Structures are given as structure tokens and as C-alpha cells.
Design the sequence.
């Protein structure tokens, strides 16, 4: 496919119509696939560049059906230019594919009349996007739907005002937060990185750097030594519960069995939740493979 033509991906989507040879027609869109529907685009150059860099052109020209939540150039403009440039590099192709496929619902042509009756939808990425309707406005993971029902031969396009980002796994989420450096160092020393990047789902009661700061530095240094790997594993797995246990579920519990095999005690008093006496200071940090709740102390298995 000609690159200059490809750069025009999603033309006319923002207006809810397709422009072909100066004639505005929805019928033409219905007869063309998702890519060809907008082959003469002008307002989706960044999305075009991303689809090309991710090598997803042929995918979006496939049988489908696909439902595409398409961010406009204005949507992409909300992301810092240096971050976009980094994403478009060949070495970040898989990450970019993960982001773009998070904008696509595969195997279904989900029209606007269907979307408004849904609370979520599973994307081609494998994760689910959250759908909400408030005051007549539909949002997908918080991004507003601006234009709907651009019908194509292999699906339908809806235009959104922001780029939606798939959730990272527990390890990457903690890394991005920047306040779990000691925990991540411990997870690495205990050789639990791959486990916590696995399918899960896991619920992690994650001690912040301030929580680890309550422990003498020499004790932490000792725990991080290779010869203490098993001890460190027992401590860290005492912070992990199998399953997706959200805050609304935690407050109904009095205990929870950890991956360590032992149970942590859960208490609720004066609106505050504690896990083995450690205060829960932040809740429901959703990840691709579970959820993180932040605690202010490191838990020690009995």
C-alpha cells in the first residue's frame, strides 16, 4: 500500500463521514475496509504513523469484524512529543502494538447503540476497557467518544478524544510509580520478577519506600544478599494474595491467605483498614495482572 496514502488513515472520522473525491458519503465507507475507508485522511496522521510503525495495517484490513476507538491527532497531542517519538521506534514495536490493539475490539461490530448498554469490552490486547455513560456522554477508559458509527466493510470506527493506555503488569506499575524502589530491589533479589509479571491475578499489599525506611538499613542489606533469597521470598509472598481483591472486598474480610501459605489479619476501624497492623494508605491501583494496595509498613510472616 502506498505510504503517502496510508498516512491518510482515518480521514473524515472526526466528522462522522468519509470524503471521497469531494463527495461526502457514508455508503462508500460501508463498502471499504477500515483502512481504505479513511485512505485520504488528514486529521489522524499520528495514529497512522503509529499503525504503520506497529505493522498493523494488514491486520486492520483483515476480515474482522473490528470495532476501533480511534484517537484523533488532538488526542495524541496530549502525550509529550518525546514519549510519542520513543514509542514509534522499531525497538518499541511490541509495546506500541499493545497500546494500539487496546483501542480495538476484535470479532465484533459494536455500534453506538450497543456501547451505551455496556460497562466494559474486551480488546484485542486481551485487557478490558471500561465504558461509562454520564449526562449523555460516553467514555472509554475516561476518553470521550466524539463521533460514532463510521461503518466499514470489516467493522466500525468510533472517534475518541484521548489515547487510552493498557494497564501495565504489577512490576511495571510499581516501577512507574517511583515510590517502590526498595520493594522492587527486593523482588529482583528474591527472583520473583517473572512471577509478578505473570498472568495472576495477584493482589499485592505493597510497602512503599517510606515503609521500608522503618527497617534499619543494615537489615535490608542483609536480606538482599543471595544467601537469604528464601527468607526474602517468604517475606515478599506474605504480601501477595491470589486473585483480584479490590478495596470493596478487603473491607469485608477479617483475614486473607497469602501466597506464602500463611494468613494476614485484616481489620477495619474508624474508616481505616489495616493488614497485620500496617495501614492501607492507597487502594485499587489496577494492573494488567492484578491490583496493588499500598501499605505503610513491611509485613513479617509469623
Sequence:
Amino acid at each position: 500500500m502506498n505510504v503517502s496514502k496510508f498516512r491518510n488513515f482515518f480521514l473524515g472520522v472526526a466528522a462522522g463521514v468519509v470524503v471521497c473525491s469531494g463527495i461526502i458519503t457514508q455508503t462508500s465507507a460501508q463498502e471499504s475496509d477500515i483502512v481504505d475507508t479513511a485512505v485520504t485522511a488528514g486529521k489522524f496522521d499520528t495514529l497512522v504513523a503509529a499503525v504503520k510503525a506497529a505493522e498493523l495495517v494488514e491486520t486492520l484490513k483483515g476480515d474482522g469484524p473490528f470495532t476501533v476507538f480511534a484517537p484523533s491527532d488532538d488526542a495524541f497531542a496530549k502525550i509529550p512529543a518525546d514519549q510519542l517519538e520513543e514509542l514509534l521506534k522499531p525497538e518499541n514495536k511490541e509495546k506500541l502494538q499493545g497500546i494500539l490493539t487496546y483501542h480495538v475490539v476484535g470479532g465484533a461490530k459494536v455500534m453506538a447503540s450497543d456501547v451505551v448498554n455496556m460497562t466494559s469490552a474486551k480488546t484485542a490486547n486481551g485487557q478490558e476497557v471500561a465504558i461509562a455513560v454520564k449526562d449523555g456522554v460516553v467514555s472509554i477508559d475516561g476518553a470521550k467518544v466524539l463521533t460514532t458509527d463510521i461503518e466499514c466493510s470489516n467493522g466500525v470506527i468510533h472517534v475518541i478524544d484521548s489515547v487510552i493506555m493498557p494497564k501495565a503488569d504489577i512490576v511495571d506499575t510499581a516501577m512507574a510509580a517511583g515510590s517502590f524502589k526498595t520493594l522492587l530491589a527486593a523482588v529482583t533479589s528474591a527472583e520473583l520478577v517473572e512471577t509478578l509479571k505473570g498472568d495472576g491475578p495477584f493482589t499485592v499489599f505493597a510497602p512503599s519506600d517510606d515503609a521500608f525506611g522503618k527497617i534499619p538499613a543494615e537489615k535490608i542489606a542483609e536480606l538482599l544478599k543471595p544467601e537469604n533469597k528464601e527468607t526474602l521470598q517468604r517475606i515478599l509472598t506474605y504480601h501477595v494474595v491470589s486473585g483480584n481483591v479490590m478495596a470493596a472486598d478487603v473491607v469485608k474480610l477479617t483475614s486473607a491467605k497469602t501466597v506464602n501459605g500463611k494468613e494476614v489479619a485484616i481489620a477495619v476501624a474508624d474508616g481505616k483498614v489495616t493488614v497485620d497492623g500496617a495501614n492501607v494508605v492507597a487502594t485499587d491501583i489496577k494492573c494488567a495482572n492484578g491490583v496493588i494496595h499500598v501499605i505503610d509498613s513491611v509485613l513479617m510472616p509469623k
